[in-house]
């Protein structure tokens, strides 16, 4: 079993001088990143870290954030990645639930932390990415001064929890899911195989590192490739970076792709180095998919999955044109079943609840056996999505079970209406919901974001 840290150490031997991590101001080779990881790990040991301790991160994307992933793996720690959009009071609920002893924060978050320090009773040490202004805080960089390059030689239990993230619960009922070191490794290996990442890839990391899609950059790094980090998404800069840095791979949610398409120089950008754009996390409209494929080339990989399940299906570029509104076939190592309300598998073409099983899924919700049992059935997970499977094993997500609209006794799937509306040139984004109706039970309502000036019309 290879942890992230084990893979980094191995790559430092194989390709010591290859640049593996960079941003607009700095870059590090595998050898340098491995040495920094050891020094940082030894610095944390000097502060009393023990295997199993939780270290939480509340910060934007950075080189330091990537280091934290590998340091936690080297020390056998539980890494808790927190949404940086949370208010400090909301974060405090999750810190208390996760029992984090160590908290790493971005420089700009310090004043809020000081104002609410009393809420973080379980946090013993605060580390700052940047210059600390909190009296009892340390800078992340100072850890390297306290440590040395020697491997800490910590024996990591592969079944122990490693990566923990929260999907809800900032107001009193936290839902924190965690993966073991082994399941994290399995998710990464399966992704490397499925997406074909190699040491020749250079991935542009855009999505927040607290999110499960951060698996993508981790896959490329473990395969021997490089990561280029942007701290936040700005469409014009992203296009420049893809072109200038010869980016070969990236992940973008559909909203990011829509914003790129609105940029004046989108169609003029040189995408010749780009071979893989993975998208997911929300439904991708047919109109967006068509534009991406026509301008960027045959690069689009559309996946289906959840934070708990990992990557379940992928629709690769060669199938994009022939499989409309499809999310692909099961990924390497994944199984998918469509089941009826009694839990029985359905035949091809029939709509039911989507269940999946793979070795890269989450282990459990932290300190919540009841919630874990509610979504796992002998290793099979469901997020409550409705879908169908065709004769070739391709999966189509129809909608969320909870989003289903029943109007006049008929099932109406919002996603299908949204896809039609998104094809209108005057609509940038849309959402369809059901509203109570005294006659029909529910009526269909669409909320739209216009593209450009003015309101959409039947002709525009």
Description of the molecule:
This protein has helices at residues 4-14, 30-46, 63-75, 88-98, 110-115, 140-146, 181-195, 215-222, 235-244, 254-262, 286-296, 369-375, 414-422, and strands spanning 19-22, 27-29, 54-58, 78-81, 102-106, 125-129, 138-139, 161-168, 175-180, 202-205, 226-229, 249-251, 276-279, 300-306, 310-315, 329-330, 335-339, 352-357, 364-365, 376-377, 380-381, 385-389, 395-400, 405-407, 410-412, 427-437, 441-450. The protein is an alpha/beta fold. The protein has 3 domains: 4-179, Rossmann fold; 184-339 and 387-400, Rossmann fold, CATH 3.40.50; 405-450, ANL, C-terminal domain (GMP Synthetase, Chain A, domain 3, 2-Layer Sandwich). The chain has a 9-stranded mixed beta sheet with strand order 2-1-11-10-12-13-14-15-16, sandwiched between helices. Strands 7-6-5-3-4-8-9-19 form an 8-stranded mixed beta sheet, sandwiched between helices. A hairpin with a 5-residue loop joins strand 22 (385-389) and strand 23 (395-400). The longest helix has 17 residues, at 30-46. The protein is globular. The N and C termini lie far apart (56 Å).
């Amino acid at each position: 079993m290879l942890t992230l840290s084990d893979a980094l150490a191995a790559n430092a031997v194989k390709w010591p001088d290859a640049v593996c991590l960079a941003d607009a101001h700095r870059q590090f080779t595998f050898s340098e990143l491995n040495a920094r990881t050891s020094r940082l790990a030894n610095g944390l040991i000097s502060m009393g870290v023990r295997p199993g301790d939780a270290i939480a991160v509340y910060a934007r994307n950075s080189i330091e954030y990537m280091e934290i992933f590998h340091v936690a793996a080297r020390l056998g720690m539980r890494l808790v990645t927190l949404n940086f959009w949370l208010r400090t009071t909301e974060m405090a609920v999750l810190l208390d639930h996760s029992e984090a002893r160590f908290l790493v924060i971005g420089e700009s978050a310090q004043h809020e932390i000081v104002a609410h320090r009393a809420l973080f009773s379980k946090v013993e040490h605060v580390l700052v990415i940047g210059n600390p202004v909190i009296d009892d805080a340390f800078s992340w960089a100072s850890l390297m001064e306290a440590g040395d390059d020697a491997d800490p030689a910590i024996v990591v239990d592969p079944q122990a929890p490693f990566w923990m993230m929260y999907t809800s619960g900032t107001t009193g009922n936290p839902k924190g899911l965690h993966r073991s070191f082994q399941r994290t490794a399995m998710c990464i290996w399966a992704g490397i195989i499925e997406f074909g990442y190699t040491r020749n890839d250079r991935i542009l990391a855009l999505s927040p590192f607290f999110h499960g899609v951060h698996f993508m950059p981790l896959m490329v790094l473990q395969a021997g490739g490089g990561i280029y980090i942007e701290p936040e998404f700005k469409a014009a800069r992203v296009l420049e970076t893809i072109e200038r840095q010869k980016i070969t791979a990236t992940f973008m949610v559909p909203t990011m792709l829509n914003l790129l398409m609105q940029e004046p120089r989108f169609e003029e950008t040189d995408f010749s180095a780009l071979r893989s754009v993975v998208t997911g996390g929300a439904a991708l409209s047919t109109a967006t998919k068509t534009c991406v494929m026509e301008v960027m080339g045959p690069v689009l990989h559309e996946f289906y999955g959840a934070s708990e399940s990992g990557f379940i299906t992928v629709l690769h570029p060669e199938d994009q044109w022939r499989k409309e509104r499809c999310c692909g076939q099961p990924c390497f190592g994944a199984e998918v079943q469509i089941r009826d309300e009694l839990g029985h598998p359905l035949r091809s073409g029939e709509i039911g609840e989507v269940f999946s099983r793979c070795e890269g899924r989450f282990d459990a919700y932290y300190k919540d056996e009841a919630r874990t049992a509610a979504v796992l059935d002998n290793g099979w997970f469901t997020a409550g999505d409705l879908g169908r499977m065709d004769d070739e094993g391709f999966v189509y997500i129809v909608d969320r079970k909870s989003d289903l609209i029943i109007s006049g006794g008929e099932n109406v799937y919002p996603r299908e209406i949204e896809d039609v509306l998104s094809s209108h040139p005057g609509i940038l984004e849309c959402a369809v919901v059901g509203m109570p109706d005294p006659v029909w039970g529910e009526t269909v309502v669409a909320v739209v974001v216009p593209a450009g000036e003015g309101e959409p019309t039947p002709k525009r």
